């Protein structure tokens, strides 16, 4: 597994965060620019994921991709949208991070 595959996967996850934020701002598809950005980001994220999948195991890559998106969106929700960061929510985000790190370390 090459390091570039992990970089593609990280980029795919980051773009997934952009997608979620854009779709939140699209206000149920009623605002054109955020809607277009959300769709474009979704396509780009999937494209970058396919690049990562050339060398990474499918299960690991998909789990890491979704984890990056989930944790990233949760943190953006707190920072940009005033969502709560309760101890339970923080603990659950920590579990997602721990699982993702475990997959990365164990898969090499």
Automatic annotation (TrEMBL):
**Cell compartments where the protein resides:** Cell membrane
Q: Which UniProt keywords apply?
A: Cell membrane, Membrane, Transmembrane, Transmembrane helix, Transport
Mainly resides where?
membrane
Q: Which domain of life is it from?
A: Bacteria
* Membrane spanning stretches: 32-53, 60-82, 88-106
Task: Report membrane topology.
Answer: Multi-pass membrane protein
Q: Which family does it belong to?
A: Belongs to the drug/metabolite transporter (DMT) superfamily. Small multidrug resistance (SMR) (TC 2.A.7.1) family. Gdx/SugE subfamily.
Q: What is this protein called?
A: Guanidinium exporter
The species this protein belongs to is Caldimonas mangrovi
